[in-house]
């Protein structure tokens, strides 16, 4: 019963759209701490390149 429901839903475009949106939401939710670390590294490196001379 569940398998037939899943098989019928897999053929619909809206199901694929929903899966993509859920995946993007989960990536943003779980990658946010890593994005803050990457932003901190970028700011520090940018400040370092401004400070040092060529």
Structure description:
The chain has helices at 2-10, 13-51. The longest helix is centred in the middle third of the chain and has 39 residues, at 13-51. Helices cover 89% and strands 0% of the residues. The protein has 54 residues and is mainly alpha-helical. The radius of gyration is 21 Å and the shape is rod-shaped. It has a domain at 24-54. The chain is built from two helices and no strands.
Shape: rod-shaped
The biggest beta sheet reads: none
> Could you spell the SSE succession in H and E letters?
HH
Rg estimate, integer Å = 21 Å
Strand content: under 5%
Number of helices: 2
Number of strands: 0
Low-confidence segments: none
The helicity comes to over 70%
Distance between the termini: 68 Å
Mean pLDDT: 89
What structural class is derived from the secondary structure elements?
A: mainly alpha
